[in-house]
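Feature request, filed as a ticket because there's no other form

It would be nice if the structure record came with a short human-readable summary line next to the tokens. Right now we just get the raw output. Example of a typical job, pasted below so the devs can see what we mean:
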Amino acid sequence: MTTPKTVIATWLLGVAAQFERLGIDLAELGTGMPAGVALAAPTRQLQLVQVRRLWQRAAVLSADPLLGLRVGAGLPLQAMNVLTLVVMHSASLRDALSYCIRYQQLISNSGRFRLSAVPGGVRMAYRITPCPVPMHPAQVDSLFAGFLTMLYRCVPNNQRPSLVALPGTDPAQSAAYEQWLECPVMLEAPQIFMEFDAAALDAPWPAADPSLLRLLLGRADAQRQAQGRSDALVDQVRAAVAAEGYAQARCESVARSLDLSVRTLQRRLEQCHTSFRQVVEAARMTEAVQLLADTTVPLSALAERLGYAEPSAFSHAVRGHFGASPRSLRADMAKAAVSLG
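Raw output as currently delivered:
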């Protein structure tokens, strides 16, 4: 059975495979296989940081200005899981775009799409999720290239966006972007979006199967609801742990604060493919990233603040999750914030 975790896994595994295909050594990206690292995160906040770190390192290792486009365009249709089939059997482009927005959280939590009317059509704008670790433009390129490649394979009548706006900072690459994305592209854009002409939005897709679509929507809704329940429980546990203190929090006391038995809490966390210990560590690492982004917080105080008995234990945990020491991670984050603007 497909779980919320394996829905996101299909995208991440596809990205990892494309990194390898393009000659990027996965071992150099950090701790083991990228998708494995990301999927080990029991909270979406920690996963967000880990995936962004992986993209930043991949961009440095590759030095290819079109890395994101190559990765996204090379992803198989399975990378978007049930969303691919929903798009394939949508009644029109307008419906397909609406479903992509509705179910995008199954695939990625790096940002959110919003649909709005513009003169002559609609704009599907992308807003990046705030995080101390910035989203690399190559990751944005990959997301757009992956989405558009999937759309082109699923829709009839050769429908294409009328314009795509991306944060890429090298206008000299505009022609290459337009060749990869098969539509007009604006780089160095203050907003990230794709636009579609009104004439294309409601043209019927004759091969769509409405009966199959109903089944697919039911499946996607069930996955979204399961993901929501999983996120809600993990967030409740994470908040209770933070309230008690990382060093003091115990499964027994957290379960009691949530009005659950210890066994019930453990069983529900197992259903979310995590454990109490993993949630505690993820909560620590999420706060560690926040604190490392604030250069006024001395490194010497972080281990104690996050409940580690020794600074070496804190350093080991950070290195294990992010592939860098606390000092190096802080420097990397500051450098990325400046270079990615």
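Something like this underneath would help us a lot:
The radius of gyration is 21 Å.
Confidence is low (pLDDT under 50) at residues 31-39.
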